[in-house]
Structure formats: C-alpha cells, structure tokens
Amino acid sequence: MVSGLLFVSRLWLARLLFLGWRAVAAYQGQPLFFNLGSVTTHQLPLGDRVVELRVYSETSGDNGAAAIAVVVDGQLEGKLESTFNYDLLVSDHPGSYELSDVNDDGQADLLIHLRGQPPESYVLSSQDGKLYSHQSHYFQNFDN
C-alpha cells in the first residue's frame, strides 16, 4: 500500500517538474469533461433558461481540438473552440464552468473558462441569454 502511494506521489512530482504548475492546477468551477467518441452534455438552469454545454472532440485520439456548443432553450447560441489532453498522466479538460454574478445585477451568469494559448473566458448573461467574451484573470499565471 505504501509503495503504491509513493509511486503515485512520484508520478505527480514528475508531472509537476516536466509540465509545470499548469498541469496540476485545479480548475475554477466544474470541469467540462467529456467521453471520447461522443458528445457529453452538461445541463444547468440559468434563471428561467435551460442551458446545455455540449462538449466533444473534433479530432480522433486522446488529445487535440475540442468544441463546446452553447445551447440556450434549445437554440445554438455559440460554438467555442478549445483543446484537451487525456493522455496517460494528463487529464486536461477543454475548460470549466461556474455560476457567478458577473455584472452585479443580483442574478447568476454562466462563466465558461477555456484552456488554450491564450486561455479565454466567456459569459452567458442571465439577462438576455447571449454569449459574450469575458476578461478572466484565473489562468494568467499558469504559464509564467
């Protein structure tokens, strides 16, 4: 048991040294995971709207381009491009999402954080159900 824990600890240390802090940092909010070869839908309420984040790979294999289709009340609001890496020692999802009041109107908005170079964030407004680019400082220190 102890030797197994030491092995896992050594793998994480090697990952940290080889890939840097970005590889072991936690996501802000909920990860946008998906199953390879299929579309994974993350469904959540946003005020009186129903939002679906449909995540899927745009390439074959366990890393590459991923897409996130943002669907509001059954209508496609936008398609976001990101990357993922599900290699043996890495589990980099295309991004994450969280509910937060971005514009101080007292209603939760949906923030979508994407991995990539440079990382990007988008906000889905609870007011009008539209998708906007959002300045995020969450990922800024990962690659320094």
Describe the structure.
The chain is globular and about 45 Å long. The model is unreliable at 1-27 and 137-144 (pLDDT under 50). The chain has one helix at residues 2-19; strands spanning 30-31, 40-46, 49-57, 63-72, 75-85, 95-100, 109-114, 120-124, 131-134. The relative contact order is 0.17. Strands 1-6-7-8-9 form a 5-stranded antiparallel beta sheet, with no helix packed on it. A 4-stranded antiparallel beta sheet has the order 2-3-4-5, with no helix packed on it. It contains 1 helix and 9 strands; from the N terminus they run αβββββββββ. It has 144 residues and is mostly beta strands.
Number of E-type strands: 9
Order of helices and strands: HEEEEEEEEE
Estimated structural class: mainly beta
Question: What percentage of the residues does DSSP assign to strands (E)?
Answer: 35-45%
Low-confidence stretches: 1-27, 137-144
Order of strands in the sheet with the most strands?
A: 1-6-7-8-9
Task: Specify the biggest β-sheet.
Answer: 5 strands, antiparallel
Oligomer: single chain
Measured as a percent range, the helix fraction is 10-25%
User: What is the approximate shape?
Assistant: globular
- Rg (C-alpha, Å): 17 Å
Q: Termini, distance in Å? A: 36 Å
Average pLDDT across residues? 77
